[in-house]
Design a protein that fits this description.
The complex is a heterodimer of chains A (386) and B (287). Chain A has 386 residues and is an alpha+beta fold. Chain A has 8 helices and 22 strands. A 6-stranded mixed sheet of chain A has the order 8-9-10-5-11-12, sandwiched between helices. In chain A, strands 15-14-13-16-22 form a 5-stranded antiparallel sheet. In chain A, strands 17-21-18-19-20 form a 5-stranded antiparallel sheet, with no helix packed on it. In chain A, helix 2 crosses helix 3 and helix 2 packs parallel to helix 4. The longest helix of chain A is centred in the middle third of the chain and has 18 residues. The two termini of chain B are 29 Å apart. Chain B has 287 residues and is mostly helical. The chains are: A alpha+beta (386), B mainly alpha (287). Chains A and B meet through strand 8 and helix 2 of A and helix 8 and helix 9 of B.
Chain lengths: 386, 287
């Protein structure tokens, strides 16, 4: 899947290069074997990362996985117990936050309550002792960019959550940092505003050419924003890759389960060939045929992960091989408008999650307790060995 | 039921205040009580109200009283300043300590109140006098060869006032600092502030209400402070409270003493109003 030359991928019409696949590209931020312990508790365990310029890199994980601690170390608010942090080639490991070319946008926004919007945004520029007219100009431009020009004289407590978020963003970008750290930037916003702000953030980042490192526990947010995601668990990066790599090719059960929903079938390798494998899964009550080879010892216990949207559901038995086919009874249906989630119970007791888009209004709806046949393509399952 | 607090205020505040006000407008008299009544029957059907402004006039013309008022204000102001300089770092330290330690520190601040003020002031006499603890220790260490005169000086009075009023500054200031969002300091550092700059630009302005509240709680009572200057200050520590005592007990000039009390109250009213507005702003800001 990986090649030695950079592969260009298309994202919504804009062609973006993939510097992480180019061995000649120099990373902008290098995290080298960083660890952080608080007493007995290890928050970050031997993490190494290479982040390239103009990326939006998301650290994704559940609460307590160490992502915020890692972000704070990048910002200079925590000192690593061991390891190095390099930003633009310079060792920044011990450097305090006020001497780093890095700015942070806090989860709580941390707007200064005794200053108005303008003064908040101008604060960092005043610290740099820029001339007054330049400060005014830059503040005005930035407020315009985040569409908060009309609120310049208001104080933070007179703003709504979304407005405060935009002020916090303006304040953190006005100093034109090369690297911006964002701690759960969209956490406090409601769903509609979050979606809208996600795209605004991406366009802003693109326009200004800033490298973003975002911390979030919301995988949807990570999938939308990120050029690459680093999934974290228990202080370690368990997988780093593009959203599609993480989703379609998870490297472990944990990642497969964490990002999106997935059905995982435990089984044993019964046939292991270079271009296909066959797995016998008592959990499934059948065999799984995967049309690519994997590396695992013979007769190994493996797990096949199949995403809910990749499963075909029909009321009549499909013709063809007996691999990747199973019968079940519809136990639950959740109607979400654009798609429906079906929970199908197999004779073995396992419940399989299937999603289907509601493409046609008049199609025959599948009802509760209906007997259905589930099948999937041989290319769909991902086999993980841990 | 709703009127009960007002009744209480009426009985224990308004009535005594009116009595003092009345006495301040009376004439002195060699009698018990040593003042003439305000209302006098003249003839059978007419009531004369005799309001004497001489007492107030006397206070404004006699330099002793003016000096005493000015000195009281000065002493209270300087004491407040010293309480701030000593008390702010203490309140800040408590607010930044971890929660388990914080309770212990607060207890240590409040602990002196468990003993009577008078006893603590007497303890200072024991510490500051010529053959007191401090002088004895310094002499035995060879740092000084003659005892320092500390007692019955303005220095001793300031020590006494600052020591006694310090908790009154620390507690409201701590209450204000405790509510502060410390992440604001991280944000300030992120934007280029060194730690002391962040304190000056963020913490100090945000703790303004706490500073004002604590300062008022020290300043207002300190102006009328009597016991500490009397016991520690010596004859040259001229405070208005002392004068009031002298007028009342030594001179038996109740009307003049009452006038002093009323003037003192009027002097402090603007500060009390300022304190009220600060408190109102604090609660409004907290919402």
């Amino acid at each position: 899947m990986t090649t030695s030359t950079p592969v260009t991928a298309s994202t919504g019409g804009v062609v973006k290069a993939q510097p992480w696949n180019d061995p000649a590209a120099r990373p902008y931020v290098e995290v080298e074997r960083i660890s952080k312990s608080f007493g007995d508790f290890t928050a970050v365990n031997d993490v190494s990362l290479k982040i390239y310029q103009k990326e939006i890199f998301c650290l994704l994980g559940a609460s307590g996985c160490g992502k915020t601690t890692l972000l704070r170390m990048l910002g200079g608010f925590e000192t690593p117990t061991s390891g190095k942090i390099l930003i633009d080639g310079e060792d920044m490991t011990g450097i305090p936050p006020y001497e780093r070319p890095v700015n942070m946008m806090f989860q709580s926004y941390a707007l200064f309550p005794h200053m108005n919007v303008e003064q908040n945004v101008a604060f960092g520029l005043k610290q740099d002792r820029l001339p007054k007219h330049e400060i005014q100009e830059r503040v005005a431009t930035m407020l315009d960019l985040v569409k908060m020009s009309d609120f310049a004289k208001r104080k933070p407590h007179q703003l709504s959550g979304g407005q405060r978020q935009r002020v916090a963003l303006a304040r953190s970008l006005v100093k034109r940092p090369k690297l911006l750290l964002l701690d759960e930037p969209l956490g406090a916003l409601d769903k509609k505003l979050r979606e809208h702000t996600q795209f605004e953030l991406i366009s802003l980042q693109d326009k200004l050419g800033v490298t973003f490192i975002v911390v979030t526990h919301d995988q949807e947010e990570a999938m939308t924003l990120a050029s690459r995601i680093g999934v974290m668990n228990h202080g370690e990066i368990v997988q780093a890759g593009t959203p599609s790599e993480i989703y379609e090719f998870p490297s472990s059960k944990f990642v497969a389960d964490f990002v999106g929903s997935v059905n995982i079938f435990e089984g044993k390798l019964i046939e292991d060939e270079p271009n296909y494998v066959r797995i016998a899964s008592p959990e499934l009550g059948g065999t799984i045929y995967v049309s690519h080879g994997i590396s695992a010892p013979p007769e190994a216990v493996v797990w096949a992960a199949v995403r809910p949207e990749k499963i075909f559901m029909s009321t009549v038995a499909p013709q063809g091989s007996t691999d990747n086919l199973v019968r079940g009874v519809v136990q639950d249906i959740a109607y979400l408008g654009d798609l429906s989630i079906y929970l199908v119970k197999l004779p073995t007791g396992k419940v399989v999650r299937v999603t289907q888009p509601n493409t046609s209004r008049h199609a025959e709806a599948i009802a509760w307790d209906q007997q259905v046949y589930l099948s999937w393509d041989a290319t769909s399952p991902v086999v993980v060995t841990r | 039921m709703v009127a009960l607090p007002y009744l209480w205020l009426l009985l224990f505040f308004v009535v005594p205040f009116v009595i003092v006000l009345k006495i301040s407008f009376s004439d002195s008299d060699l009698a018990i009580p040593p003042y003439k009544p305000l209302l006098e029957w003249v003839g059978k059907n007419s009531l004369a109200i005799k309001v004497n402004f001489n007492n107030y006039a006397f206070l404004f013309t006699d330099p002793l009283y003016l000096h005493a008022f000015a000195n009281s204000l000065k002493v209270a102001f300087l004491s407040t300043l010293m309480c701030l300089i000593i008390g702010y770092p203490m309140a800040y330290g408590i607010a930044r300590a971890r929660p388990s330690l914080r309770n212990v520190l607060l207890l240590l601040v409040i602990l002196p109140f468990w003993t009577s003020l008078l006893l603590r002031v007497y303890a200072w006499i024991g510490l500051l006098k010529a053959n007191g603890v401090i002088n004895n220790v310094l002499m035995s260490l060879g740092i000084i060869h003659e005892p320092l005169t500390m007692l019955y000086t303005p220095f001793a009075m300031y020590v006494g006032i600052v020591y006694s009023y310090l908790p009154f500054l620390i507690l409201p200031l701590y209450a204000n600092l405790e509510k502060m969002d410390w992440q604001l300091l991280e944000a300030a550092e992120d934007l280029g502030c060194r730690p002391w700059q962040a304190f000056y630009k963020i913490t100090l302005p945000l703790s303004r209400n706490g500073i004002l509240a604590g300062s008022m709680l020290v300043f207002i009572p300190a102006v009328g402070e009597f016991v500490i200057p009397a016991l520690l200050g010596g004859p040259n520590a001229l405070m208005i409270g002392r004068l009031l005592w002298d007028e009342f007990f030594s001179n038996r000039a109740w009307p003049v003493a009452s006038a002093v009390a009323i003037l003192l109250l009027i002097l402090l009213v603007p500060f009390m109003m300022w304190y009220q507005s600060v408190q109102a702003r604090e609660t409004a800001g907290a919402r």
